[in-house]
Design brief:
10 strands, mainly beta, elongated
Length: 136
Amino acid sequence: MAVKSQGTKIYAKNGTLFVEVLGVQSIGMTGGEAEKIDTTALGDTVPSSVRGMETALSITSDINYDPADASHILLDTLKTNGAAENYKLLYPFSGATNTQFFTGEILSFPAVPSVERNSVLRKSLSLTVNNVRATE
């Protein structure tokens, strides 16, 4: 069974409150693949390897950007500060797994938005994902 993604939201923590990031068009998750460590010795006739650590997770998100929107101003500030902050993903289905919290740092949220003909201002957000958990 497939679950609709419409209604998925991402929030950034500002002080003690989570602020919904408005204008989100997409949210993608990358990373988490295990590295491969080569253990083949010079005298071996067959290659060998062991599983290594997983690569870091990251989220990318395309956002319709409004320079006057409080959530976009917050993202600009968090990017400038470079500090880790708490984030929340809320999926549009009921159940124990519909909310995930994580600590992250903004890797990219360009100072200048993208512009296209017959479109709106857009920015791409890139976040590290650390310490994923079900509760804050």
